[in-house]
Amino acid sequence: MGQEITDFDKSMMQRCFKLAENGAGHVAPNPMVGCVITHDDKIIGEGFHRAYGKPHAEVNAIHSVKKIDLLKKATLYVNLEPCAHHGKTPPCSDLIAAHQIPRVVISNVDPYAKVAGKGIEKLEAAGTEVIHGVEKAQGWFLNRRFFTYHTKKRPWIILKWAESADGFLDIYRDNADDLRPTWLTNQMAKHLVHRWRAEEQSILVGQNTALLDNPKLNTREWYGANPLRILIDPELKVPSGYHILDKNQKTLVFNWVKAEQNSTIEYIKIGQESSIIHAVIEELYNRSVQSVIVEGGAYVLQNFIDANMWDEVRRFIGEIHLKDGIKAPEFKEIPASKTPMGNSILYKYFREAIV
């Protein structure tokens, strides 16, 4: 660990976290990383990883320093261990060593097999003092998708739904009804949901939700890339004219009938004896998808809950009483947070305690 961690070290790591968050929705499957460089307890450079395939945070921070000679007396703060391998960019640990930066402070060791301590080893071999573990719980939470993907070999799974004050997702409807769900929240919540879509790599619904709501599952209410759409439709009941099959964005359809590629729509056939949930999660892992929002419906959500296949729940509870209809999932966990949002409240839950 090296010398004692100071309050200044902690404050600079907080700055790294803030910088790193600017990469949300743009860097996956890479982690979000921010970097700050100081000299005599003053910031002389900073940067963050802006987009996948672009220069890493450490490179941007070093290039932002106007007086390069100060690097030999500086401290570099970064929330994730500098890489030690040639990927889409050269190793950051080599660049740090080349500039002879004498002290590096890190929040988290990188679990990715090609790094996993090798960056620290390179720096220490070059004579750099390396301190790691600074604010590591917060660092883990920031990159929880990345860490879950590399340690649990699956994406971070978010379950999301809105329910009425009396515990219903919707009134009873059929295909003859208007293809719109009962609105239980408000425009502010809708914008937030579209922001979430831009921040996560994929979004999933079952056939009933696709048939009854005809959702687009895009980011039209927020700036950002559309997520990969996932439809669970075992018997291929969703007609081709529905939004989820409109070919406007990449879509995977898990089914029992066929395996086929049709423009941006890919049909993935699985055996009827297989668990669809586990087949979906395994396929997403194989495609380097690190996060998925499960939006419904009730049957799909309950199956994820019953299988204990979730990491985070985002649950809106509105003021409206429906009195009857489709029951919300059975879910008895204690919320980690509660946020009022107009005519509804957003509750967030985490399967494992977040420090």
Commentary on this structure:
This protein is 26% helix and 25% strand. It has 355 residues and is an alpha/beta fold. The chain has two domains: 7-146, Cytidine Deaminase, domain 2, CATH 3.40.140; 154-350, Dihydrofolate Reductase, subunit A (3-Layer(aba) Sandwich), CATH 3.40.430. The strands form three sheets. A ten-stranded mixed sheet has the order 11-12-10-9-8-13-6-14-17-16, with helices on both faces. A five-stranded mixed sheet has the order 2-1-3-4-5, with helices on both faces. It has a two-stranded antiparallel sheet with strand order 7-15. Helix 4 links the parallel strand 4 and strand 5 (129-132). Helix 3 (92-98) packs parallel to helix 4. The longest helix has 14 residues, at 7-20. The two termini are 21 Å apart.
Strand order of the largest sheet: 11-12-10-9-8-13-6-14-17-16
Question: What's the CATH class of the largest domain, please?
Answer: Alpha Beta
How many extended strands? 17
Based on secondary structure, the structural category is: alpha/beta
What is the rounded Rg?
23 Å
Strand count, sense and barrel status of the largest sheet are: 10 strands, mixed
**Overall shape:** elongated
Order of helices and strands: HEEHEHEHEHHEEHEHEEEEHEHEEEE
Q: Helix segment count?
A: 10
Q: Report the end-to-end length measured between terminal Cα atoms.
A: 21 Å
Overall pLDDT confidence:
93
| CATH topology name of the largest domain | Dihydrofolate Reductase, subunit A
Keywords: Hydrolase, Metal-binding, Multifunctional enzyme, NADP, Oxidoreductase, Riboflavin biosynthesis, Zinc
Catalytic activity: 5-amino-6-(5-phospho-D-ribitylamino)uracil + NADP(+) = 5-amino-6-(5-phospho-D-ribosylamino)uracil + NADPH + H(+); 2,5-diamino-6-hydroxy-4-(5-phosphoribosylamino)-pyrimidine + H2O + H(+) = 5-amino-6-(5-phospho-D-ribosylamino)uracil + NH4(+)
GO molecular function, one term: 5-amino-6-(5-phosphoribosylamino)uracil reductase activity
Function: Converts 2,5-diamino-6-(ribosylamino)-4(3h)-pyrimidinone 5'-phosphate into 5-amino-6-(ribosylamino)-2,4(1h,3h)-pyrimidinedione 5'-phosphate.
